[in-house]
Amino acid sequence: MPNVTAAMAVESSQVIVAIGGLPIRLRCDNPDFVRQIQERYAGYLSASDEARFDFEIELAPPGTKCRDADVSVNWESGRWLMERGDFRAEWNPVTARGRIQQTINPYSLDCVLRIVHTLLLAGEGGFLLHASSAIRNGRAFLFSGVSGAGKTTIARLAPPDAALLTDEISYVTRGDGRYFAVGTPFYGELSRPGENLRAPIEVLYLLAKGPENKIEPIEGSDAVRGLLANTLFFARDPRFVNMVFEAAFDFVARVPVRRLTFVPNSSVWELIQ
Amino acid sequence: MKNFRYVARSKAIAARALGDETMVMSATNSTLFTLDEVASVIWEAADGVTPLEDIVAKKICSAYDVAPGLALQDAETLVENLVQHGILLASDQPLLPASATGKEAS
Question: Is the ipTM of this complex over 0.90?
Answer without folding.
Answer: no
